[in-house]
Design a protein that fits this description.
This protein is mainly alpha-helical and 236 residues long. It has one domain. Helices cover 83% and strands 0% of the residues. It has eight helices and no strands. Helix 1 runs antiparallel to helix 8. It is elongated. The two termini are 25 Å apart. The relative contact order is 0.13. The C terminus is likely disordered. This is DUF4386 domain-containing protein. Keywords: Membrane, Transmembrane, Transmembrane helix. Pfam families: DUF4386.
Length: 236
């Protein structure tokens, strides 16, 4: 059980952080699994080109969703720093920096998607445009996983922050730390043993569970603190 509570101001920040976290989860999963995965097959350049050219709006919507995710991630990084800095300023600052680096890398990797689209849209002027475009789509995937290396470190730090702070139950800290290990392992496989990435993919379900649980905890934080404040007033 947590041994301290947030001030009303920080409780409001926690609720806003939870809202941003929810946006990140929805847009991140929506862009990668709901919108982009049905279009991009890194093992088939022609099928990928045909799918994207047949659904350009879906492809652009995936990019837009990733942009929203990146903007929300930057805001969340700052809010979490404000929430935890009184408990452990060094760790809170480190977590913010690593999360912001992840955000920059993932946002920058969107340029690879845009370049791939430009290649396909100018296919008449390029030889073997589908294969060239697929290289850029693969580069985006690698850039995404590079960002997750920094996010994995962020998750480990956040897990330690939550565990030590007493503001939230320690189970949330343990979940975030476990998510960090999964992100680091998954990114390592992408770069050093790509043939194992599909086998490892189900492990990301743990990250979704841990982050969604912490997101929901942040969302209800303000209500919980308001109830506690009311109880203290009544007692007085």
């Amino acid at each position: 059980m947590p041994n301290s509570t947030l001030t009303p101001d920080l409780a409001r920040k926690a609720r806003f952080a939870g809202m941003l976290y929810l946006v990140i989860i929805i847009t991140g999963l929506g862009a990668e699994l709901g919108l982009r995965a049905p279009l991009i097959d890194l093992g088939n350049a022609d099928a990928t080109a045909n799918a994207i050219l047949a659904a350009p709006g879906q492809f652009r919507l995936a990019i837009a969703a990733d942009l929203v995710m990146a903007l929300s991630d930057a805001g969340l990084a700052i809010l979490l720093y404000l929430i935890f800095r009184a408990k452990a300023p060094g760790l809170a600052l480190s977590a913010m920096v690593f999360r912001l680096i992840q955000t920059v890398l993932i946002a920058a990797s969107l340029l690879s998607l845009l370049t791939g689209w430009l290649v396909l849209s100018r296919a008449d002027a390029l030889s073997d445009a589908p294969t060239l475009a697929l290289v850029f789509f693969d580069l985006h995937a690698h850039g995404y996983d590079l960002g997750l290396v920094f996010f994995g470190v962020n998750s480990l730090i956040m897990g330690l922050l939550v565990w030590r702070s007493g503001l939230f139950a320690r189970v949330f800290g343990a979940g975030l730390a476990l998510a960090g290990l999964v992100y680091l392992a998954g990114s390592a496989l992408r770069f050093f043993a790509p043939e194992l990435t599909l086998v490892f993919a189900p492990a990301y379900g743990l990250t979704i569970l841990a982050e969604t649980a912490f997101c929901l905890r942040l969302l209800v934080q303000r209500r919980a603190n308001a109830a506690e404040t009311g109880a203290h007033v009544s007692a007085a």
